[in-house]
Structures are given as structure tokens and as C-alpha cells.
Amino acid sequence: MNALEEIKGVIPSLNEDQIEAITTTDGPVLIIAGPGTGKTLTLVARTLYLLVSGKAQPEEIMLTTFTEKAAYELRDRVSQLARKINYQGQVHLLKMGTIHSLCNEYIMKFLSYTILQKGYSVLDELTQVFFVYENFDEIITPRDGKFLGRWSNKWNAIKEIIPYLNKIIEEIIDISQLENSGDEFLGVLSACYKAYCKKLFESNRVDFSHLQKIFYELLNNNEIYQKIKSKIRYIMVDEYQDTNYIQEQIILKLATPENNVCVVGDEDQSLYRFRGATVRNILEFPKHFNNCKQIKLTVNYRSHKKIIERYNKFITSINWDGFRYPKEIKPDSNAIFPEYPAVFCIWGKNEEDEAKRVVQLIKFLKSEKIIEDWSDVAILLKSVKPEHSSHYIQTLKENNIPYFSPRAKVYFENIEVKLLLACYSIIFGFYGDILKNSSIREYIEEAIKLLGEVISSTLKDYIKRKVQQIEKLKEDSLDLTILDYFYQLLAYQPFSSFLNDKNKAYNLSIFSKLISVFQYYYNISVVTSKNKEFIKYHLFGSFFNFLIQAGIDEYEDPYNPIPKGFVQIMTIHQAKGLEFPVVIVGSLHKRFAVQKQVDRDLLPFSKRGTFETERQMTEFDRLRHYYVAFSRAQKLLVLTTPEKPQDWFSPIWEELGQYPYVEKETLKAQKFNSKPQFIPKKSYSLSQINVYQTCPQQYLFYKEYDFQPSRSAQVLFGSLVHHTIEDIHRAVLDKKDFTTSDIENWLEQNYKALLLSGLRPISQTQKEVALKQVINYFKQNQDILERISETEVDVSVEKEDYIITGKIDLLTSKDGKFEILDFKTPPKQENNSELIDRYFKQLCLYGYILKERYGKPVEKMYIYWTSEERRKDALMEMRYSEKDVEEAGRYFDEVVRKIKEENFKVSIPPDTEKVCRECDFRFYCSQNGIIKFKTKELEEV
């Protein structure tokens, strides 16, 4: 049986275009995949076809996509299909992820060839804003009384300048061209860009755009390029219409010279111009080659044929002038389409009336059991900020219909957040007359008033004590970080009860991250007499002032972004890649603006120059935007507005029936079965499982809710030793000569990098102990160093419904057999301890994975206790058998089962001295009777 027959055996429904896309593997291939045409299925099957046919080993295939969620889905679906066709290869070795994650992976591997150092941190959208704010005076240049001569407001200048900084990198613009352009704004901009880059790399940080640039520079180093390229034979890129210029150049470089590159996408669904993406990449892809094969997937398996007819008419309603591949999406010819009003409109007298009619429709669909769950309905809007979504939300609330809209930027409207900010404002003295000129005066005053209505006597006494502590600070400091106050507050009502509510707990977790960001970016370790005034004015006057006005998103579960039991209210961008039985599209009366200024200023200096005209940018983008919205619908598409829609909606709006005057009887007869959203398997690291076994509450708070720790000196010590020992191993693998002096330098560099990552400093004595452990290991283990095969080896085991991941510290080889070393920095444990048993099970799993991956047995397994001075005391050998491996597998299954069942109750309290003393939740657990742990510190709280 050949590879195609094997795949068709488990996917018999493949059509001829999909088969062609799957089997056309060599040379450049462009797959234009319209909405609902089985794009992901085709990509997954194509990957397995390459593997089963023997054209490539898993590690020789690179598969990249736009979002982490899409990458998870591809990973799991490839694995599922591999099991169905009984493919025995190691599919986890596929190079799979977002372009950013793959760039990051290679940068870490070839770090010494880049401008970055170990422990570099990657700025996300929020932290990039605060990085510019932190270095504002050195980056942003004032001119004519305005910043860069354009913006008078500081935060507005930051928001506007960041797209310019990113675009310069993504379009690979020669900065000297901007300097010499003769344009005053561009001249000042070039200076800002240089200052930004200087500060970025001085602090060992990198933004998403620079991740790509640094990787691109690695590819232009011929030595590194050959090392990377030699292990990549086939490249597949999903969502190619959403890539930018530097991503295109990376992909083309990696594909050369065989050009076994397949890009998949749909120019009609290009949405991310505002993030630097350009539809130009997919439209011009064939021009890079002499023999590019073009395949179109046009059979839609998602939507009712009436929906397809309507959005086809909409997308073809203008002259695309060569900026679109000609195609027509067709319904599945084998499907049966019941006769009912699949597309209609709602036209309210005003927003309140419109929302009322929308909610009446949703209630009708649920009461008549046309839909099974509230989550079968998605309301898609251009924006979900309050000015766009509040009338829907208010009406859903009035009708007791649950809704989910985490990106409405209303995080600061949650009661738990308001109460926390009220407590902080009182503790640090940001209230009363100080608020007079503050733009968040009303918010803080309302929050304090709300606190007064619910505050308990114990919480009031706590706040009073903390206020007095800060007021008495004259020449000294408190052993308290700003984040420590947060964890102490959690011990009191109402905050302690908020931790029992999952949504509120996630919001509290976000608050812990925000405070941590503030401490990190303003370099504040503890509260002192010198910085208490700075904290007061900058925490509120700058930091929260900006966040409250800009708004931030609430928590979204990356593994399950569409929770059951809630009507979904989301942006059209959020809905990309999703589908729903019922889609209600609003904002049809609103104007559609396109960000043009950045492109207008910078694209003339790109190596490619400009592309569409400004008129075309607006016309094309608005049709693509709403085409994505309309094509999310499976069974029912509803267009809703409180005013006359914009004229360009006429092709889809004309002649639509209006609810509630549509044919309800035929609609009543329908049953729209939910198609479950794909929920990827969750990964559990072995360190996470160890945390659960130590304390289920710690797992819940730190790993499930992802609270940001405040106390992490112990983490820094262990990481410092691990990182420096890894430097030794890496130097040995690279055949570099080094001395103990080099080791001292590596440890110092690692220490600085760990501090920059937000960990708390350790004492000079502890640093000396860490260095002593590392040098002692180096001197006593020359024979081990001679046998190194790999260091920091990522391993994983895929189970039926989850994935276990881990990292082997050191892998050595002797007589064709492996030896595993796992380094531990705490004091050596007794042989019969519970912790040793956990470590043993972990090593058993490592041994099993290595045998499966390499076909070679693991001869010996060791724990190496770096705190022991003599090697014979440090090396603890552990032998295992097949029975031990099976028992370890059952053990991990049992622990994960408890986690998945949300069994986080502490039945056996942990060792309070070893576990609780450094845990931020010791106040909460002590106050709530989970542990009995009394210290002077707790009494003061």
C-alpha cells in the first residue's frame, strides 16, 4: 500500500484538489485555500504523506503557522493521523510552531553568534510599550514642542512610534536612507530607532520584530546557514497571507536551493496589515520561481450554500485589478441543504432596539432547541470595546444570558481589580488632594468608595498598619516588594474568597503580573524611604493611568478560547480560523479606517517599494475583513445594524429578509448540531508534576492560574548553577578551550541575565557557593565531560489526552550506550525520601524516551548533587527496569488525572519549613487553615 492509499484509508473524503495539494511535494507550491475548504486537514495529510512516502524524516520538515493555537492544533492533528495510519516515526521531532517561536529556538541554539546574551527576555506588546516608556527621554525626540514634531501626549507618542520601529525592521529598511531622506520627521525617526535598538540590546531584551531580524542575520552567516539548512528539506507555511517582508525573506532563504516550499493561505482573508503583514507575499509568491505549481481548494464543507452564495457575491463586488486570485467558492456537491432563511438581517431603530432584537433571536434559537448551547452563537464586531459592544452585553445581562468577551478591554471594571487598586492607593497614599489633577481620579475615588462598602475590620487594620509602616520610613527600607503587599492582601476577605472563583482568580493573577512588570521596568526591588514617593506617583500617575485609559484584556484560556455555556462576543480578528453554527455580524453602519500613515512614510524606502494605492488599501481591506466574518457561519448568518449600513455592504445586504419577519416555521424545524472547537492536548512538564506532588495549592496558583512569584531567590540560585554548568557542557561540545576564569565570567553573565529576567538577587555568599559548586563539578568530572553527547535535551511523551515534557540536563555516551545525569542544587536527599522517588520516576521516563528516540538503551542514570564536595557523594546512581518504566507511566497518568479533575485540595500539608516558607501564598494558606505556620512575619501581617 502506498502513502496516499494509507492516508485515504483514514480520510476517504479527500477531493481531487486536496489530493493534488497533498501529493505535490517537490518544488515550490502555492495552495490557495478558501474558507471551510479543509486547509488544516490538507496540511496535516501532506505532512504525513512526506513521512510515510519516505521523502523526509520528521526533523527534516518545518511546519509553521500564524498563532500558537493553530500550531497546537497542527501538532495534535498530525499526531492523531500518525497513530491512525500506524506511522512509527518520531513526529514530535517535526520543527513546528509560529515563525516567532522557531526564530527564538534557533537564536537560543546559536546565541553566541548574535548580539544577545543568555537569559535575554522577549518583549510582548505590553512590555514593549513600557520599555519605550522606561527609556522615553533617550528614545523619543521632541521637536517644535511635540514629540517627533507630531504628538503632544507622551503615551500617544509611544503608541504611535512603536509601529514605526517594528516596520523599519520588518521591511528591512536601511536606516541611512531615512537619515538622508531630507524629510525632517524621518530624520528624527531614524535617531529614535537607533536609540531604541541601543537600549534594547544593552538590557539584553528583544522584541518580536528583532527576533526575526536576528534570525535572518544568522541565515546570512554562511557557516550557520549551512548548519540550519542541512537539517531542513521541506518547508510548509500556513496563513501565508499574514506574513511580512522579513518573514518572506526568511522562508525563501530556508527553501533555497531545492525550493521544496509550500505556502498555504487565502488573500481574501488577509487581516493583519496593522501588524505589518502584507498580502503582497502571497500574491507575488509565484514570481520568485520559474515553476511554481498553483492549486486552489474551493469546495466549502462548512457553510450552507445560501451563505456561500452571499459572501461570494460580496467579495466579487469590486474590481480587484489583479490583486486577487480569480476563484469561486463552491458548496459541497454531496451535501443536503435544508430550505430555511440561512441569511437575514436585523435593523433596529437605535442601538438599544437592535440589541433587543438580537437577543430575542438568540433566545428563540435556544428555546426552540435549534442550537444546543449558548456558545453556538458568535456576535462578531469590528471592535469589542464598550462603545461597540456594551448595548449587546447589557441586553444579554438583562435577559440572564451568559456571555464571554475577554477582549472588551474592561479588565479594570472587575470588582476584584477595583478593590485591589483601592487598597494599593491607600497604602501608598495616592488619594485625596493628590488625585485633583489625575485623569483616573474618578476611577480611584469610585474604587475607594466600593472598598469602604465591603471592607472587613481585619483588612482595615492591615491597611492601617501598612500605611503607618511606609509613613515611618525615614532612612531605611522594608523587606517588602510591591508585589508582597498583593499576596498579603489575599489573606483577607473579600480577596481570599475571590480565589475560589476561577474567573476572579485569573484576574488576580493578571494583577500580579502587572505589578511584577512595574517592579521590573522601574528596577524596584523593595520599598525604601528613597523610592516610596516615586512608587506612589509612578505606579498610579503613569503605570495604572496608562493601563486604565487604554484598557487591557481579561484572561483567555489558550487551550480552550471558546468556553461552553456562553454567547461569544468577539472581534473579527479573534474569529479568524473559527466557525460557529450561528454568526451575527454587527458594526455594519460604522466607517472602516485603515492604518496608512506608517506605510505611507516607510514603504517608499522598502526594497520593494509601495504596493496598493491608498484607495485600494481601504477598499480591499474592508471587504477582506467582513468576508472573514461572513464565512465563519455554518448554518445561519445574521447581519445586524442600528442604522443604514455602509453602501459597500449592498451586495450582501440587498433583498435580505428582516427578523422577526422571516419564515420562522422552517427555521424552527432545524437542529444546528454543534461542531466542537478543537481543543489541543495540554502539556505538563515534569517540574509541574513535581510541584503538584509537593503542594496541590501551589500547582493551582502558580501553574494553573499562573500567578507571578514575588520570592524567587532560591529559583535564582538553582538556575545560576544549572546555566553555568550548561555553559561548560556547551563549550565542550563546541570543542572550545576554557579555564576556571571563563567559568567565573559565565556565572557572572548568567547572574546578570537572571536578574534582568525579574528574579530576586542572592547574597554575595550564595553567589560564591554557586561558583564553588560549578568549579568543583568541572574539576572532578573530566571523564564525564569527554563523553558528552548532548546537553539540555528536550524530551516529550505523548499520551492519549495529554503530553509530558521534560529536559535532560546531560546525556553522555559510553560503548554505544547512554548515561543520563540530572543536576540538583538542594542538599542531598536520603535514599528513601519521597523526593528521590519522584526523581527516579522522572529518570525512568527519560530513559524510556531516549530508547524509543535513538534505538539505544540507557545504561546508567544519575542524580548529581552539586552541593556535595566529593564526586563519590555527588553521584547517585539509579537503575531501572521495564517494570519501573511502566510504574512511572502509571504514576504520571494518576497525577495528571488529578490535575485534570481539578483536585487541588491539600490533604497532607507540606513541610512548612521547606515548602511554605518561600511560598507567596503562606499568608493565605495560614489564614484559611490550610497550613499551621506561625512566624513573626505572619503575625505582623
Task: Name some characteristics of this structure.
single chain, 941 residues, 6 domains, ATP-binding
Précis, in short:
The protein is an alpha/beta fold and 941 residues long.
What does the model show?
The chain has 941 residues and is α/β, with parallel strands linked by helices. The chain has 6 domains: 3-108 and 213-297, P-loop containing nucleotide triphosphate hydrolases (Rossmann fold), CATH 3.40.50.300; 121-203, no CATH class; 343-408 and 560-668, 3-Layer(aba) Sandwich (Rossmann fold); 411-550, no CATH class; 682-900, Lambda Exonuclease, Chain A; 909-941, no CATH class. The strands form 6 sheets. Strands 15-16-14-17-18-13-19 form a 7-stranded parallel sheet, with helices on both faces. A 6-stranded parallel sheet has the order 3-2-8-9-1-10, sandwiched between helices. Strands 20, 21, 22, 23, 24 and 25 form a 6-stranded mixed sheet that branches. Helix 6 packs across helix 8 and helix 16 (351-367) crosses helix 17 (386-398). It is globular and about 85 Å long. This is DNA 3'-5' helicase. Its EC number is 5.6.2.4.
